[in-house]
Structure to design on (79 residues):
């Protein structure tokens, strides 16, 4: 479901406006979709944090185990 579908959804008119049952069903669908998306965002954020920690750990280990060579220690470049 896209935001556009939510914005443009039309409900058939009833005697006193829209059909409340259909409106409620639509609200339930939207709420379920948003709950699922929020859970997905939470899980992806956790995975992103885990990958960042693993990368930092690997970089730290690599820096300890692979000291720079003599040529790499002296920067003859401008920066």
């Amino acid at each position: 479901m896209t935001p556009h579908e939510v914005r443009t959804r039309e409900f058939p008119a009833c005697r006193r406006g829209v059909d409340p049952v259909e409106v409620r069903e639509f609200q339930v669908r939207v709420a379920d979709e948003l709950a699922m998306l929020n859970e997905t965002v939470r899980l992806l954020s956790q995975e992103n944090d885990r990958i960042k920690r693993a990368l930092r750990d690997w970089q730290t280990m690599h820096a300890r185990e692979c000291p720079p060579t003599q040529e790499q220690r002296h920067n003859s470049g401008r920066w």
User: Anything to note?
Assistant: The two ends are 51 Å apart (CA to CA). The chain has a mean pLDDT of 84. Helices lie at 3-8, 20-65, 70-73. The longest helix spans residues 20-65.
